[in-house]
Request: fold
Amino acid sequence: MLLIPCPYCGEREETEFSFGDEAHIQRPADPDSLSDEEWARYVFMHTNPKGVHFEQWVHTAGCRKWFNVVRDTVSYEILAVYEMGKPKPDIEDRRQV
Amino acid sequence: MASRYSAFSLIKNALSYHEKWTPAWRSPEPKKEYDIIIVGAGGHGLATAYYLAKELGERNVAVIERGWLGGGNTGRNTTIVRSNYLWDESAALYEHALRLWEGLSQELNYNVMFSQRGVLNLAHNEHDMREISRRVNANRLNGIDSEFLNAEQVKEFCPPIDLRGGGRYPVLGASLQRRAGTARHDAVAWGYARGASDLGVDIIQECPVNAMRIENGKITGLDTGKGFIGARKVGVVVAGHSTVLADMAGISLPIKSVPLQALVSEPVKPCIDCVVMSGAVHAYVSQSDKGELVIGAGVDKYNGYGQRGSLPVTEETLAAVCELFPQFRRMRMLRQWGGIVDVCPDASPIISKTPVQGLYFNCGWGTGGFKATPGSGHVFAHTIAKDEPHPLAAPFSLDRYRTGYLIDEHGAAAVAH
Reply:
């Protein structure tokens, strides 16, 4: 069970939240010019690190606002929480083999 | 060479107090180079090595494993085997596996305890009923045994079920595959390991892969915990860690790693003689030969490599099990664990060549890889040895995410993934 610190409501249990997969994926600026290969990359090929993961969550049963979370996928430690639209915080990569 | 197992060998060894059994497989030091290295000594990896040696004449093969063989998802699943998948491509692949299961104990001279006790997939509402009858019909058109049962027939086939489902999960009907059932998960890994080792395959445990050496777009070997091992071809079958290895080769995979949980109860007298699955509530129940109820739960919603899983997932599954089987309410659970599964966007596996020459991936089996073990190994062995996809594996190439030819088994495969 994760305790997620919602930037608007404070720390709540994970059952109040929904997971929104990887953060900072940019929608293509010019979709018409994309090849099938590039579409596949945009739609399907996300990162799945064993270590630091940048991800989106929404506080479904609370304020219903989206925000970003940086989490270690091995220890499940939450390393940072920040609002949508803010740049990636500088966090040391803990990638494990 | 391991001795052949038989009633006679059992009696013979009983006379020496079972102290003279020989090891089932060799544990050699790695050679400098192999023709083919399989990474991952789970059921799928060992089966791949076995069929490479047995059917494709490959004699210079190694299986390397970070931990111990069969210690990952092979030893963590709920042992259910079935082939009642909706789409033609999946039906063909899983049915191929089921047919291999049916002769596997004889093939390996190792009792994998395959028990075709029948698998029920429950319907709890009108939508489930329509979905299930569609799937039953699709299965029958593909020559897979599949039956539609109404509520009374469900009760007759599996008397412990409470058809009212506590009011929350009423049972309106079910699909039944009689040829489906369970197998002993460890035995599958051990049987394939023994068979492969006898055919000259080196099984090297406690040997993690640290890096891949790729020159001019071609794989040349692996840097491992036991030094550099050269290889002409490398097949990667590492389930939840697929993207970790793909990252080493600079390949993108559409995979998300999440823990899938299971648990077993205290042992009780025989009370349920089939497998009951409910896709809608994501609960599976069967009873092991030791008497424990084996219960499969769902996956965490968020990426994770922790082999334990989140408590609310277990809670939801157990709540549903208690509604469907009120007599289990006072049972205590003995153990709970999680395995890291590799889920694809279309809930179908990837059995494929990659942009790196000589590097092959078999992954993305998600929450349902155990049932496919023999078939997966069989088609992957062909794909590696011939450097072209086995006809049954061809639709499952990595390229389908570019072409859009997805095999969407989400929900369609009799269980909500």
Observations:
- Chain B is about 30% helix and 25% strand.
- The longest strand of chain B covers residues 333-343.
- The interface with chain A takes residues 208-210, 241, 243-244, 247, 252-257, 301-306, 310-312, 345, 401-404 of chain B (CB under 8 Å).
